[in-house]
Amino acid sequence: MARITDPEKLENIKIAVMELLVEHGYGGMSIVSVSAKAGVSPGYLYKYYSSKEELVQELVETEMDSIIENLKFNISTSSSVFEAAYKTVYNLFMYANSHPINAKFTAAVFMDIKVPSKEKAENYKILVELAKQIIDLGIKTKEINPRAIPMEIVAIPFTIPFRYISVYLEVDRNKKFTLEEAKRVAEICVKGFI
């Protein structure tokens, strides 16, 4: 008979993975370091996850799915690129306010291309398709240069807000992002499309 899963231990494991990935990058973490930080034995960890890759993938997929769904909604409900960018940046900032380690983890995942994910290629394809929608909207509203390509649209709005979050939370762990900052960062992103 399998032992009952301890939700607190599993949550500690997830937090340990996020913190270690943020602090040391994907290559700098191991099952042993995760188990030590989470306060569990490596055997307990292996009971639920067969490898470091599997452990990280679960968290990456959860974060990516949330971002993609949020972005889809923001694009479909916006009448301008700025509006979509602002909603997206605002949501990221509010998420960082309430879940700073999750936001730093997500930023680290976007910045560290070595982080494995079975669905990463598929997620990037989805982001490219969403970027095409943003380009179409931006051409209509004259917010985007018609020569813009989807990869530019993917790179700019993810690099700038995530780097902003990462740097600020490194300098001030108690930082609370504001509406005004979200507007300013969204403006910077949209200006990058011109």
UniProtKB/TrEMBL annotation:
Keywords, sorted A to Z: DNA-binding
Top-level taxon of origin: Bacteria
Pfam families: TetR_N
Domain annotation HTH tetR-type: ranges: 7-67
Molecular function, one GO term: DNA binding
DNA-binding region(s) in UniProt: 30-49
Coiled coil, from the record: none
Gene3D superfamilies noted in UniProt: Tetracycline Repressor, domain 2 (1.10.357.10)
PANTHER family: ACREF/ENVCD OPERON REPRESSOR-RELATED, ACREF_ENVCD OPERON REPRESSOR-RELATED
Name used for this protein in its record: Bacterial regulatory s, tetR family protein
Classification of source organism: Bacteria, Bacillati, Bacillota, Clostridia, Eubacteriales
